[in-house]
């Protein structure tokens, strides 16, 4: 009798849910990268995040990655293959991965997905992004102080809200200390194309631009600035190695804490869907790594403003804000809501450029 009872209890236990941390087999965690892993840039910062997960959780996890995965059908194929191969948590850090991630997630309800820079969620898909615009505003303050021509350039991939937030915040930051400042924008239609990025930077330098920012994934623009004796805002990573004299400062992204926390949650059986949008206050965005040409007074000014953003005293999108067609988009004294920021579809006054289709 007792022998049969023990068998029944053992069988019942098979249907109970235990935290994954109790399993002996490491949790397989996958990462999909839109460009190759280089020494600096968008993918490098996410690769640093993956390494942070592996270091923090050691033999509890086994992390893998696939690099240079184009957005669209290729992304869906790679994400699906990771799910089929037993990965129970998959991070997909690129805006164009959002729809492929959701599609695969419907077919693998027991797998958890993290859509990084996406905004759509599902029962097994969470979304996370960083408030890049906070760092852009701070970089704009430094650029406004350092420019001599009152002309800055901005090379961008696509005119999606995330990118427009950065362009607009950068411009507002510049004009907060230098009302004469103007920003020339070039959209490339790609996130990673070093020759194309370089050509865009050279075009801007030929138009009297003396400081350039960018929202692309390589170090090509930094190298172009170094070659031409101009200044550039490094993005994603510290890029002084590629532009030791040209780097004004760097707006850096930090994903390790978020990736580790989300992986630990799954190991403990506590993972839940939802959205995360962290910035300077949460340590996901930082500004620093100044180049040798930046006076201490400028560094100190930016440091003060960074603390004000972290405390909530300063909000980059505070009215009045007018777009570059003359239309008022935010009244004087008003602070833009998150929903308004996320739906941004215009360029502010001071930006020379038009939105592509």
Key phrases:
11 helices, Rossmann fold, 15 strands, 357 residues, 6-stranded parallel β-sheet, alpha/beta, globular, disordered N terminus
Description of the structure:
This protein has a seven-stranded mixed sheet, with helices on both faces. Strands 2-1-3-4-5-11 form a six-stranded parallel sheet, with helices on both faces. Strands 13-14 form a two-stranded antiparallel sheet. Residues 1-18 have low confidence and may be disordered. Helix 3 packs parallel to helix 4 (98-107) and helix 7 (194-205) runs parallel beside helix 8 (220-228). Strand 13 (321-322) and strand 14 form a beta hairpin. 38% of the residues lie in helices and 20% in strands. It is α/β, with parallel strands linked by helices and 357 residues long. It is globular and about 60 Å long. It has helices at 2-13, 42-57, 73-84, 98-107, 132-146, 161-177, 194-205, 220-228, 256-267, 296-311, 338-342, and strands at residues 27-32, 61-66, 89-93, 112-116, 125-130, 151-156, 182-187, 211-215, 231-236, 247-253, 275-278, 285-288, 321-322, 328-330, 351-352.
- In angstroms, what is the radius of gyration? 23 Å
Strand element count: 15
Rounded mean pLDDT score: 93
Strand order of the largest sheet: 12-10-9-8-6-7-15
- Helix-strand category: alpha/beta
CATH class of the largest domain: Alpha Beta
Biggest β-sheet: count, sense, barrel? Answer: 7 strands, mixed
Report the sheet-strand fraction. 15-25%
The name of the CATH topology of the largest domain is Rossmann fold
In CATH, the architecture of the largest domain is 3-Layer(aba) Sandwich
CATH superfamily of the largest domain: Response regulator
Number of domains: 2
From the spread of the alpha carbons, the general shape counts as: globular
Low-confidence stretches: 1-18
User: What letter string, H or E per element, gives the SSE order?
Assistant: HEHEHEHEEHEHEHEHEEHEEHEEHE
Helix content range of the residues, please? 25-40%
